[in-house]
Amino acid sequence: MNFVAQDISAQIMMLETRALKTMTARGFDRRVAEAASLAAPVSRGSVVATQGLRAVIGGLPVAVGDVVTVGGTGGDGTRTHPGLAGVEAEVVAVHHTEATVVPLAEGWAPAAGTPVTLAHRGGEVPVGDGLIGRVIDALGRPVDGRGPITGTRLVSAHHPAPHALDRTAVTGQLGTGVRAVDTFTALGRGHRIGLFAGPGTDTSSLLAMIARGTDAAVSVIALVGVDGRTVREFLDDLGPEGLARSVVVVATEGEPAMMRRKAAFTATRIAEQFRDQGRHALLMLDSLTRVAGAQSQIGLSAGEPPARGGHAPSTVSLLAQLLERAGADHPGSLTGIYTVLRDGDDPEDPVAEAARPLLDGHLVLERRLAEAGHVPPLDVLASIAPCASALTGPADQAAATVVRRAMAELRAVQALIEAGAYVPGIRPLAEAALAARPHLDAFLRQATDDSTAPAEAWARLRGLAGLLSVDDAGTEGRAA
């Protein structure tokens, strides 16, 4: 019997040797990797406590930014909690041996003791030309029903802002196609502009106009905290032509706060990659206010004490981190337009107050103009672009100054004119502006499907300034 057993063992060893010799190196490596993955221990923790949006987990070594799966199936394929589908959540705080997580998806209803497994470390964002023309969610997944996205690669969501000494000077103007913006508040490549808008001013229409008319190589548009109807209307306004050179990132108001916050950083990271490739990219975020609201929900859920306006203290630092990442970095640039929603004329809005010092200029949309059918409802006199003078020539600067002064003079006496109490001859420049009112309105108003090149817009403004010029004797000038 021993001789028989030895003979059988020898034959088995011979067969195994032949199998190893015929096995390709790739197949052998694959089998080794599979065996290693099966032998690796599954790290698993559990939910310790829940409160509101947050859950506290223990027994799992994690860091801030890691993503875990709460409930669902474990590493061995078995369901870890009956009746609870797995929901991904991101770690927002770590306390000794416990961590606080907030959900990234719907269906969040964990109970104490629900098993938790590590999904992946840190965050990754897809970037590349394959995203152009697509609509994605905060995690980079397609939501436009056009199938998988190809031509992309994953990069870390964390990207340092350009160092202060590495930033290049802003010298070139970025055209938007909107006459009032390109002349009175010219945007430079690498500038950060705040779009301060009251309720009912339809910011999405203006952003769609800019996306269609800009001379930037690619636009990345983040719609954060908006409703589904607004998303649909924005895509309709953008049209196939605008979408063909844009990336749209969407996180609606019904999605978890973490997804709304991530959408802003995902869009920023995608735009940064285009800048790093040497292109001129435009990032439009609607809105910075809703991103701040999402961060406040997350921060308060993580245990931060409420600060001014009910916001979490981390909100201000998050806004600074987000805005600082735009800018010019040779040879590319990233220009940012960030919508800030105003509640009436409240000067104490903490989000607006925190954003203003971080911005290079302000565009102000007024509801009274929107109600009068003035499109876009841009208040030229309230809008400020302190760096615009470095982007234009002396003749263009002089023309913009003349038109601004005339509009300011007309606004100062408008109430007297309407009341019939104005005495002619007191303010000749205001009278010149009143006479040229049809030309002013024709210049400042623009159909949503209209786009004007910056050179043409400046030429029209110089002609308008000629109509409004007044000599020392108070006589109105006339354009040649």
Measured distance between first and last alpha carbons: 118 Å
Helix content: 25-40%
Please tally the β strands and state the result: 18
Beta-strand share of residues: 15-25%
DSSP helical segment count: 14
Q: Largest sheet, if any?
A: 8 strands, mixed
Class based on secondary structure composition and strand pairing: alpha/beta
Give the overall shape: elongated
The chain-level mean pLDDT equals 85
Ranges with pLDDT <50 over ≥5 residues?
Answer: 36-40, 74-83, 472-476
Radius of gyration: 29 Å
How would you describe what is shown here?
With 480 residues, the chain is α/β, with parallel strands linked by helices. Helix content is 38%, strand content 20%. It has helices at residues 2-22, 25-39, 179-184, 203-213, 228-243, 257-276, 288-301, 314-324, 350-355, 367-371, 394-419, 428-435, 437-444, 454-468; strands spanning 44-51, 54-58, 67-70, 87-95, 98-103, 115-120, 124-127, 135-136, 153-156, 173-174, 187-188, 192-197, 218-224, 246-251, 280-286, 327-329, 332-341, 361-365. Strands 8, 12, 13, 14, 15, 16, 17 and 18 form an eight-stranded mixed beta sheet that branches. It has a six-stranded antiparallel beta barrel with strand order 1-2-5-4-3-6. A hairpin with a 2-residue loop joins strand 1 (44-51) and strand 2. Helix 4 packs parallel to helix 5 and helix 7 (288-301) crosses helix 8. The radius of gyration is 29 Å and the shape is elongated. The chain starts with a helix and ends in a 12-residue tail after the last helix. The model is unreliable at 36-40, 74-83 and 472-476 (pLDDT under 50).
